[in-house]
Amino acid sequence: xxxxxxxxxxxxxxxxxxxxxxxxxAEIKLPAIVSSNMVLQRNTTVKVWGWADKGEKITITASWLxxxxxxxxxxKGKWITSLKTTNSKEPQxxxxxxxxxxxxxxxxxxxxxxxxxxxxxxxxxxxGNPGQPVYRSVQTIANSRNKNLRLxxxxxxxxxxxxxxxxxxxxxxxxxxxNTVPEFSAVAYxxxxxxxxxxxxxVGMIHSSWGASPIQAWxxxxxxxxxxxxxxxxxxxxxxxxxTVLFNxxxxxxxxxxxxxxxxxxxxxxxxxxxxxxxxxxxxVKEWRExxxxxxxxxxxxxxxxxxxxxAINEYSNYxxxxxxxxxxxxxxxxxxxxxxxxxxxxxxxxxIHPPRKKEVADRLLNIALHKTYSYKTIDFSGPIFxxxxxxxxxxxxxxxxxxxxxxxxxxxxxxxxxxxxxxxxFYPAKAKIIDRRYIxxxxxxxxxxxxxRYGWQNWxxxxxxxxxxxxxxxxRTDNWDGAVQVKQ
Length: 489
Fold this sequence. Notes:
This is Sialate O-acetylesterase. Keywords: Hydrolase, Signal. Helix 4 packs across helix 9. The protein has helices spanning about 1-25, 120-125, 135-140, 185-200, 220-225, 245-250, 275-290, 325-335, 360-370; strands at about 40, 45-50, 55-60, 70, 80-85, 90-95, 100-120, 145-155, 170-175, 205-210, 260-265, 300, 340, 385-390, 395-400, 405-410, 420, 425-430, 430-435, 440-445, 450-455, 465, 475, 485. By secondary structure, it is an alpha/beta fold. About 20% of the residues lie in helices and about 25% in strands. The strands form 5 sheets. Strands 1, 3, 4, 6, 7, 8, 9, 10, 11, 12 and 13 form an 11-stranded mixed sheet that branches.
């Protein structure tokens, strides 16, 4: 019996030693975004990171590199290293080894990686919502199979504190196919599929958005407190509308993943405070770029579309009029480096805040990216944008930039949406006509000494002014008046 007890004691000691050894050498853990099938930004330096036990040595073997990479986890168990990618189109592997782990990531490709974020119009899936379609969705989904288009969706994960833990839908990267694309962002899919076809390289689209979220939810506490007091009182009920929590849980965890650029479709939730929006957007973009630490990467965004139910249709001079928010988005281009705005004045829906023409939105973002990021200089990327005016012949002559090939209107004899006012700040509907294919002349017989003009200055309007590529002009005003009114018809 004594001999049995001694043997049992020895076995227990050996077992404890083995268990303690495993405790010392914890398994390698990777964030969900670092997985098989991922797209790494080509021909640059990318990061691979994860967790192990503190002091754990990890050896990384990459199929395209001739040398091993060895990294040691820090005192908190975090490790991160940089790898140089190439332009190869061949699938690659990455092997990570430690004392207790042997992980191989397969079918890794090099290509173009874009982040897509914002609120419901970015979150809107290809399959649409009940009663809210996406045009051409059925055929798009049916023809979506493409192993060179990879998709990654960040799950909705609000957090009161910045986190490195990443919650992902489908637990990693997936191929585009009829099973994976229906719930994926329609704008992101249309952008990515066309970019992949045009560049003929793999493309990775990272989707991280949440409907009804204001821009403040996508900014850190450190940055946002410089602008306003923070309020977390509605966190439990409305996490998507709470300051900083979407940045903490859905942006911060992916800032080590190298991207080419970002697409942003948001603004509806901030339409009641347009006076702050351009500054907030500038602060957010600056912070994201600092967090990624890869320079002023391209940041392209969508102007919110006209919609009748933002407020009373006849709102004109207060912030219930969404034209003020559209103006703030237009101004953001002047204060944020390496950015541009896709205009949607002609493709809104009067009765839905989610316009169904998502491909057109993606097309316009794509045009911007092709021209400005990928140097396809023959691709037109902007409709006419107001630049200056002069009083002339009892009217106003309006001049535009980004209209090198001239202005166009489908109904050239009746261009809708223009208004004109004198010093009394009363705006009358203006007769508008194209002059010399480059200018717009507006007038109204009741305004004999015109001072200012406006275009599309209301919640709902169907854009009527384009360039010759049929890209629309955004709404604008030449004045900065408070208390202007529309004449009653």
